[in-house]
Design brief:
With about 120 residues, the chain is mainly alpha-helical. The protein has helices at about 15-45, 50-60, 60-90, 95-120. The protein has one domain (about 15-120): Fumarate reductase/succinate dehydrogenase, transmembrane subunit (3 helical TM bundles of succinate and fumarate reductases, Up-down Bundle). Helix 1 packs antiparallel against helix 3 (about 60-90).
Length: about 120
């Protein structure tokens, strides 16, 4: 017979912690590498840095695909962080649901706008 000391801990889901931790690290590493790539292209470019320079960097197809994947990674990174904050600090289930739906709609809108800007170049 086992003895139960204290209150039981309520767990929301199994193994969310490791998956979320890993996804945060992987998406952060991808965004850091992308930033270094863009900075290297800017540093080794000639002439003034303006719209034409930025459009030239992002006009190549491989850079558009990479930019698209970084926008998706950024949205996922933000979602995991915001969701964890809501789960940790918002006690009311109804308010948490409203905030999560708002965050999802906002992130989808921002990602869609970013992709639209990227592919318009």
């Amino acid at each position: 017979m086992s003895v139960n000391y204290g209150s039981r801990r309520i767990v929301v889901g199994a193994h969310y912690g490791l998956r979320d931790w890993l996804s945060q690290r992987v998406t952060a590493a991808l965004m850091a590498l992308f930033t270094v790539l863009v900075l290297v292209q800017l540093i080794f470019s000639r002439g003034p840095i303006g719209y034409d320079q930025w459009a030239g960097i992002f006009s190549r197809q491989w850079m558009k695909v990479l930019g698209f994947s970084i926008i998706v990674a950024l949205a996922w990174h933000v979602w995991v962080g915001v969701r964890d904050i809501f789960m940790d600090y918002v006690g009311s289930v109804g308010l948490r649901l409203v905030l999560q739906v708002f965050a999802i709609v906002w992130l989808l809108g921002c990602a869609g706008w970013g992709i639209q800007v990227l592919w318009r170049l």
